[in-house]
Amino acid sequence: MMSTSILVFIDQFNGAALPASWESLGVGRSLAIKLGGSVACLVLGSGAQRVASEAFAYGADAAYFSEDPTLTGYRLEPYAAMLTKTARDLAVQVVLFPTTGRGRELAATTAIDLQAGVMPDVTAIDVQDGQLVVTRPVYAGKLLAQTLASGPVQIVTTRTRAFEKPLADPSRQGSPQAVDAVLPEADIRTRILELAAARGEVSLGDAAVIVSGGRGVSNNPALQPPAGLDEKAAEIWRAQQGFKLVGELAAVLGGAVGASRAAVDAGYVPYSHQVGQTGKMVSPDLYVACGISGAIQHLAGMRTSKYIIAINKDPDAPIFKLARFGVVGDLYAILPAFAEAMRKRLGK
Amino acid sequence: LKIVVCIKQVPDSAARIVAEGGQVVLGDALLVINPWDEYAVEAALLCMEAAGGEVIAITVGGEGARDILVKEALAKGCSQAILITDPALQNADSQAIARVLAAAIQKIGEVDLICFGRQAIDGDMGVTGAQTARLLGLPFISLVSAIPTCGPDVLKVERSIDEGRQVVETPLPAAISVGKDIGEVRIASFINIRKASRAVIPVWNLADLGLQTPASLVSWPAVTNPPARQVTTEMITGNSPQEIAEKLADKLMAEKVL
């Protein structure tokens, strides 16, 4: 039987793979062609068997899973132990992860166990002389670093949306194999006490469309805040009215709501929406920047978006230089009209 | 509690950084504390205030990194600061740095809690915290957003995950990385910065830590500037917001973006 050269961690939650997982598996498939050998994947936690059975269609030659109770909620220690053991048992050369919160720390941790170099958040992968040569954005994408890892095992996390999700091939089928948990509960120090899932929002990293608001979203002098608010509270109230318009456009386009650091720091929206160097790095098909001037930290986080639309009062705002379409004007008037125009065209 | 916070000096996020001849050129970029590490310092100080004890800030860097130990650690209330510097660490990768940090934490001894930022904004690796914890055999909890219980024997934290929030408990010692939602960070006063600048900061090299040069597995043989964005900006104008919106919608549909 052909030896396994590549192991892919499929990140999943309650029986649904994170989209970035299939992108990683697609990368694994194309690397296997260049390196030789076959591709195995590992799926852990509740719902893992179902996800593992889907993995064949996306390119896996073998799919291992465990739904052991110790793996039900994600914890680093038992998950890392499973990955390390599987990678050792299969004697793989490459371990791939999606760059999710879990993927990045598992990659870091298994790299220590396997004495391997780890190259996180890569946007391109090549093979030269049987070794991986990857491209990683550094300094928040201001530069690209060609990166190598020496040693017999290389660990990579693939940036979300940087690689195509493979088309599911229903003719590829197989039976997932159950594997035993490595760590007994008594050897795991962390305990999960509570899990509060976020309200079904589209996650920024996975979103094909992002509509973002900046400081400019609070600048509507026509709005009269309710009596009794102090200056700061009135500003936040104004901004929230503006972000409602941002959210309505995002809903029409089926996208997620983003924000600039200025908007987050001013308290307009929670930090989880922040796009940029100290927020999320995003790469959607369409990015609509509303009232965002385009500070270098923000541009670094969204410059790889396919199409950018900028709406801003200031014709000199740097964001226009990256935009395919620009509108100089009042976003309070433009956004509702644009949402309506798109609603008609998309039949919503 | 004995708390260690690991911080790093990096070019300011607003700096223009370019590649020349395959090398990173920082130009006259201001060097500052890694913005993520400010939250780690804040979390360490909050734990110290809640549970008592001390916070020791450590950094690996050149002589210039002393600056962040003074202004961002000691002046904000950290009890001690240590600079780790060695010419042999010039091209160290994250894993080599993790080995150095792990050795320093062992030398400090009896550390209960180690705080890291989420990632450094220069190399954008985001692995050093998890790797240091693994080398020390400690549990690692990432992206902590609140610390309801800190010691004496257990740590209870809230953390952000892709699907929402988790509340996790672990016995101490343990390591965490801290997210921005831990809260607003304190600002050091001028008086405290002046006081802190007179503090004695021990300097450790690899020999002090009993280490040979740790192996670096990852290297960046070349850096390049990203390809310029090929875009011709088309400004959409009109006599009314509706007219502009209709034109913009037609253009967007024609580009088949959606």
In short:
The complex is a heterodimer of chains A (348) and B (258). Chain A is an alpha/beta fold. Chain A is 30% helix and 26% strand.
Describe the protein in words.
The complex is a heterodimer of chains A (348) and B (258). Chain A is an alpha/beta fold and 348 residues long. Chain A is built from eight helices and 18 strands. In chain A, the strands form four sheets. A seven-stranded parallel sheet of chain A has the order 7-11-6-1-4-5-12, with helices on both faces. In chain A, strands 15-14-16-17-18 form a five-stranded parallel sheet. The longest helix of chain A is centred in the last third of the chain and has 23 residues, at 231-253. The radius of gyration of chain A is 23 Å and the shape is elongated. Helices cover 27% and strands 30% of the residues of chain B. In chain B, the strands form three sheets. Chain B has a nine-stranded mixed sheet, with helices on both faces. A two-stranded antiparallel ribbon of chain B has the order 2-5. In chain B, a hairpin with a 3-residue loop joins strand 9 and strand 10. The N and C termini of chain B lie far apart (54 Å). The chains are: A alpha/beta (348), B alpha/beta (258).
List the main descriptive attributes of the protein structure presented here.
heterodimer; A: 348 residues; alpha/beta; seven-stranded parallel sheet; 8 helices; B: 258 residues; two-stranded antiparallel ribbon; 6 helices; 15 strands; 27% helix
Secondary structure layout:
The complex is a heterodimer of chains A (348) and B (258).
Chain A: E1 4-10, E2 12-13, E3 16-17, H1 19-35, E4 38-44, H2 48-55, E5 62-66, H3 76-90, E6 94-98, H4 101-113, E7 117-122, E8 124-128, E9 131-138, E10 143-149, E11 154-158, E12 177-178, E13 191-197, E14 209-213, H5 231-253, E15 256-259, H6 261-265, E16 286-290, H7 296-302, E17 307-312, E18 325-328, H8 331-346
Parallel strand pairs in A: 1-4, 1-6, 4-5, 5-12, 6-11, 7-11, 14-15, 14-16, 16-17, 17-18
Antiparallel strand pairs in A: 2-3, 8-9, 9-10
Helix pairs in contact in A: 3-4, 5-8
Chain B: E1 2-7, E2 9-11, E3 18-20, E4 23-25, E5 31-33, H1 35-51, E6 54-60, H2 66-73, E7 80-84, H3 94-108, E8 113-117, H4 128-136, E9 140-150, E10 154-161, E11 164-171, E12 174-178, H5 190-196, E13 203-204, E14 218-224, E15 234-235, H6 241-254
Parallel strand pairs in B: 1-6, 1-8, 6-7, 7-13, 8-12, 9-12
Antiparallel strand pairs in B: 2-5, 3-4, 9-10, 10-11
